[in-house]
Amino acid sequence: MKNKEKRLTIGVLSHLTFCKIETIRYYEKIGIFPIPPGTEGGHRIYSEKNLKRIVFIRRGRDLGFSLEDIRALLRLVDGGDHTCGQVQKITLHHLENIRRDHCLRLIQKRKSITKFKTTLLEYA
């Protein structure tokens, strides 16, 4: 890590990204977030690059991407030879899943409302 680059503790990283320390450790454990170098005292020191990666992961999770989808997107970026088409394929697949799930929820809600209407008519 360069000397001029900001050095962040996990507590500061957690605070800045609204990501719990346990979650950051979990991301390290499953390999979607690299374990940063440590100090002589054994404390991990995070960089602004780490901060951006956590923000990306959090944003992806907030948008409903699975950890596997996020891992695939990060692999494309980390590998350096990703294409827009590859990124688009993953995101379009996710969007299609959202549409399908939304349609299923609407169908289920419609059935519930129809059943509720029938119940109300029985009492009328």
Produce the secondary structure layout.
Blueprint: H1 10-17, H2 21-30, H3 48-62, H4 67-79, H5 84-123
How far apart lie the N and C ends? Answer: 73 Å
SS class: mainly alpha
The rounded Rg comes to 22 Å
Number of helices: 5
What is the element string, with H for helices and E for strands? HHHHH
Multimeric organization? single chain
Uncertain regions: pLDDT < 50 for 5+ in a row? none
Q: How would you portray this structure in words?
A:
The protein has 124 residues and is mainly α. The chain has a domain at 1-63: Multidrug-efflux Transporter Regulator, Chain: A, Domain 2. The protein contains 5 helices and no strands. It has helices at residues 10-17, 21-30, 48-62, 67-79, 84-123. It is elongated. The termini are far apart. The model has no long low-confidence stretch (mean pLDDT 88).
In short:
Helix content is 69%, strand content 0%.
